[in-house]
Amino acid sequence: MTALTADQMALVKATAPVFAEHGATITKHFYKRMFNAHPELKNLFNQTHQQSGTQPETLARAVYAYAANIDNLGALGGAVTHIAHKHASLNIRPEHYPIVGRHLLGAVADVLGDAVDQPTLDAWTLAYEQLAQIMIGTEAKLYDGASWSGFRPFKVIRKHVESSEITSFYLAPADGSSAGGFQPGQYVSVKRFVDQLGVDQPRQYSLSDAPHGRWLRISVKREAGRADTQPGHVSNLMHDGVEVGTVVHVSAPMGEFTLDRSNDTPVVLMSGGVGITPMASMLATLMIESDTRPVTFVHACRNASVHAFRDWLHEVADGHPNFRRAVFYENASAQDRAGVDYDFEGRLDIGRIEEAVLVPNADYYLCGPVAFMREQREALVARGVDEQRIHTEIFGSGMLD
């Protein structure tokens, strides 16, 4: 691969503001171009996010960040690792990168026209090739360490309703072999054919049980849709069309949001809504592996009807003296039991539980809506918690910064 010259880096960096202004237009046109030429690639991309515009916007932000830091890629931090895990979970392979590059650069030329000259396009071509090699190399290491390659058939051996919105699916390999290991906090992609779209659609779901090799458990929230959002194609298919005995295709576990199991420092797990799923995996693992490691479990949801794993949390609290919990119900009903189902009424407020969560040397794990995680992180940092000890999981197109 030909290296970028200093002048070419300067050209790419100078055109970064163009992506800030026109990026979403370019990336929307890119996806249209690519899918017209390679409709089979629709099976790799969330078509709901395509229709809503969130995926093109996310790509535009990523391209802008890369261009703006072309001369200092270390400034991108963990973004490359985060994207590589997502790609590996979707089975993105090296042969896909030339296709993406050809249509992305074509979209730049189509949208910007005479505003971009050939030297600039040449610089962007080399910049893309550089990025592709970085991603391919990072993803190769993930594939090498994965429990299996591609999508593997699993059979549903149990289906359990956790709340009015969330149902758990216990998945065992269809060939009877081991389900393999994973790190608590990781996720898998599950692929289902969506009749309305005419394509397979992968969706990523956190694993919600401790690793033990017998099965993998995912806990899926039904996305019913609202006035401004469409119902979730795959989540509704899982709830309504996947029963015990159904075979689904599952990728190997991926994700860098994982529990540090190497020490005995205190752990604070904080979740909102369906963000409880990776926390359940972390908590189950901690309860198995350590009798002495202090664990504080903080959760926020609307009320008991949507509170997944509620009964299990009661059992954990009764059986482990090193476990503390703080559950907030924003809209507790008359049937919800204060002190049993929940501990505090209202939105999660760290100011009300400082004694429980401000633990010396603790590691903090946050998962939930982006606004929820941003608020909790800011509250922790304001109270002196080292940002390096705060770990977050982000799905979809949201960003904390």
UniProtKB/TrEMBL annotation:
<dbReference type="InterPro" id="IPR039261">
    <property type="entry name" value="FNR_nucleotide-bd"/>
</dbReference>
<keyword id="KW-0408">Iron</keyword>
<dbReference type="GO" id="GO:0008941">
    <property type="term" value="F:nitric oxide dioxygenase NAD(P)H activity"/>
</dbReference>
<keyword id="KW-0521">NADP</keyword>
<feature type="domain" description="FAD-binding FR-type">
    <location>
        <begin position="149"/>
        <end position="260"/>
    </location>
</feature>
<keyword id="KW-0520">NAD</keyword>
<keyword id="KW-0274">FAD</keyword>
<feature type="site" description="Involved in heme-bound ligand stabilization and O-O bond activation">
    <location>
        <position position="31"/>
    </location>
</feature>
<feature type="binding site" description="proximal binding residue">
    <location>
        <position position="87"/>
    </location>
    <ligand>
        <name>heme b</name>
    </ligand>
</feature>
<dbReference type="InterPro" id="IPR023950">
    <property type="entry name" value="Hmp"/>
</dbReference>
<feature type="domain" description="Globin">
    <location>
        <begin position="3"/>
        <end position="140"/>
    </location>
</feature>
<comment type="similarity">
    <text>Belongs to the globin family. Two-domain flavohemoproteins subfamily.</text>
</comment>
<dbReference type="InterPro" id="IPR001433">
    <property type="entry name" value="OxRdtase_FAD/NAD-bd"/>
</dbReference>
<dbReference type="InterPro" id="IPR017927">
    <property type="entry name" value="FAD-bd_FR_type"/>
</dbReference>
<dbReference type="InterPro" id="IPR009050">
    <property type="entry name" value="Globin-like_sf"/>
</dbReference>
<keyword id="KW-0560">Oxidoreductase</keyword>
<feature type="active site" description="Charge relay system">
    <location>
        <position position="97"/>
    </location>
</feature>
<dbReference type="InterPro" id="IPR012292">
    <property type="entry name" value="Globin/Proto"/>
</dbReference>
<keyword id="KW-0285">Flavoprotein</keyword>
<feature type="site" description="Influences the redox potential of the prosthetic heme and FAD groups">
    <location>
        <position position="393"/>
    </location>
</feature>
<feature type="region of interest" description="Reductase">
    <location>
        <begin position="148"/>
        <end position="401"/>
    </location>
</feature>
<keyword id="KW-0813">Transport</keyword>
<dbReference type="Pfam" id="PF00175">
    <property type="entry name" value="NAD_binding_1"/>
</dbReference>
<keyword id="KW-0561">Oxygen transport</keyword>
<keyword id="KW-0349">Heme</keyword>
<dbReference type="InterPro" id="IPR000971">
    <property type="entry name" value="Globin"/>
</dbReference>
<keyword id="KW-0216">Detoxification</keyword>
<comment type="similarity">
    <text>In the C-terminal section; belongs to the flavoprotein pyridine nucleotide cytochrome reductase family.</text>
</comment>
<dbReference type="InterPro" id="IPR017938">
    <property type="entry name" value="Riboflavin_synthase-like_b-brl"/>
</dbReference>
<protein>
    <recommendedName>
        <fullName>Flavohemoprotein</fullName>
        <ecNumber>1.14.12.17</ecNumber>
    </recommendedName>
</protein>
<feature type="binding site">
    <location>
        <position position="187"/>
    </location>
    <ligand>
        <name>FAD</name>
    </ligand>
</feature>
<feature type="binding site">
    <location>
        <begin position="273"/>
        <end position="278"/>
    </location>
    <ligand>
        <name>NADP(+)</name>
    </ligand>
</feature>
<comment type="function">
    <text>Is involved in NO detoxification in an aerobic process, termed nitric oxide dioxygenase (NOD) reaction that utilizes O(2) and NAD(P)H to convert NO to nitrate, which protects the bacterium from various noxious nitrogen compounds. Therefore, plays a central role in the inducible response to nitrosative stress.</text>
</comment>
<dbReference type="Pfam" id="PF00042">
    <property type="entry name" value="Globin"/>
</dbReference>
<feature type="binding site">
    <location>
        <begin position="203"/>
        <end position="206"/>
    </location>
    <ligand>
        <name>FAD</name>
    </ligand>
</feature>
<keyword id="KW-0479">Metal-binding</keyword>
<feature type="active site" description="Charge relay system">
    <location>
        <position position="139"/>
    </location>
</feature>
<feature type="site" description="Influences the redox potential of the prosthetic heme and FAD groups">
    <location>
        <position position="86"/>
    </location>
</feature>
